[in-house]
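Q: A reviewer asked whether we had any structural model of the full assembly, not just the individual parts. We don't, so I'm hoping you can provide one. Inputs are below.
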Amino acid sequence: MSRSTGRRRFMAGAVAAVGAAALARDARAAASLGATEHEVPEDASKTQGYPLADESYGTRSQFETEARTRFKTATPQSSWTFTPLQDSVGIITPSGLHFERSHAGTAVIDPSKHSLFVHGMVAQPRKYTMRDLRRFPSVSRILFLECSGNGLTEWSKPTMPTVQGTHGLTSTSEWTGVPLATILREAGLHSGARWVLAEGGDGAAMTRSIPIEKAMKDCLLAYGQNGEAIRPEQGYPLRLLVPGFEGNMNIKWLRRLEIADMPFMTREETSKYTDLLPSGKARQFTFEMEAKSVITAPSGDMTLDGPGFHEITGLAWSGHGAIRRVDVSTDGGRNWRPAVLQNPVLPVCHTRFRLPWRWDGKEAILQSRCTDETGYVQPTLGQLIALRGLNGPLGSVYHLNAIQSWHVASDGKVTNVHHY
Amino acid sequence: MSITTSATMRLKPLLLAPLLACACASAATSGEDTYGFGSTPTQEELQRFVSPLPDGRGLPPGSGTVAQGKALYEQQCVACHGANLEGGIGDKLIGGRGTLVNDTPGKAPVKTVESYWPYATTLFDYIKRAMPLAAPDSLTNDQVYALCAYILSRANVVPDDAVMSADTLARVAMPNRDGFVGDPRPEKFPPVARTPHQDLAIGAAKK
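A: Here is a predicted structure for the entire assembly that you could use as a starting point for your response.
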């Protein structure tokens, strides 16, 4: 399968073959993001490799070029970047490729000066340093995070050419931190406490109200991501994880929790992140990210190398729990076959699915449809539109979890289409 | 204890928990064990945070007029939100009433403070903590009340001589106050509709 990202690999190969110093310098200048460029010997088995440093922080191969790509919003501060799902394997998203959605850029915070305040309807207001928080018993969970705007360009017509653009606002990491319930018990909730305001320490002071039941159930104050400190763009040094709820509620750079008896009705839960229907009424507090799946390969903008065996693979996830099954169609939804789910199949986590496929070289439409542990079946786009309408580009744009269709042409070219 | 200390050190608080709970008498509720970490924030530390509730609780003292707000708007806001509050890099702030009922895919409903925001307290909250773009959290409470007064007057929600304060802002009736409904999901979808898409041969998929 060839991909448009192959250019860098070709360049590196050409440099190796020629071996010219000038060209090598050019190659170094064009080193792939996050990689360190090294001279490429003709045969690595006939020479010593580069030395192990006394201290180092590893980087990926210079031949790998996957990168997040930014949606061209008006400013690069309130913006988002997509995870390159087309190149993903397994279920964990590398921290450096985890999608970003920020409302005032990436805050830079010295953890030694960062505090978390807990106040409002509590017996004892508290102030915690990062060192304080690290003293509490910790837990780790592998969780997907998805922006509720994932796929918002795709309602009316297929728009983004690749799965990175159509679905790249979902990522999975192992998150480590303190259960929010521990901290709330520590402060002592008043009997009338119903909502928790979570506020970020960024320039937007991003705020969302979280129902107290959810806060006590499974939320996490995370300081760890994939075995190390959480990345700056994911909220370093502290992020609220609200498993299964829309991404923007997972407040980054968390600095404050205020407990109240009603929701605070912040901008991000009234004027934004509400779903305006054709009736003029808007759904509010649409928290859960419902079951969704997508075939990541073959996917948009790829070209199949020819008839014969191809593995169809993709990801499925649900904010309501574990994925129970994924079915795959190669004929636009007429016939479905169950895909194999790769263990571990975890609740509120990306689940990798696979299906062997022998392509006959004729046109095909590839689709995946998942079912989660509640029995909820991923809908078609037509079913979503039947209930929510298509009320313009600023209407109900969030929470598109429809079945995705990839059209395979007889020449192997894969494109994003609507077929429902 | 260092932040990077190993897991064995983390066990200690667990073992000490009952002792700490007794010794510190901190935050114990319904007899649960607590750890007693952290400290008690001062009033000064908490005063920095302003998060009003929609009924007005939490709004700080202060006030501002439409005229004061207009002068401030022209200094601090006009570059992003436009001379007529029509928007630019920043959101359009006024207009759009009557556009929310809309079933035309190509037409955008116009969502502004005037047409869409259900509570005026949200306006204070957002301007206070996140505006202006180049210097968030830099305006005084009086200035924020004044900007609320100006924007709401331009939105024809309050009169031109309005003075906004904790008391008056909480009582502003926003036009779209009743425009929101709860989340009905999971939805009961109709059976898969027989749309033109399904009648197409595979090769004629809608592009």
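A: Points you may want to mention in the reply: Residues 2-29 of chain A have pLDDT under 50 and may be disordered. The first strand of chain A starts at residue 69 and ends at 70.
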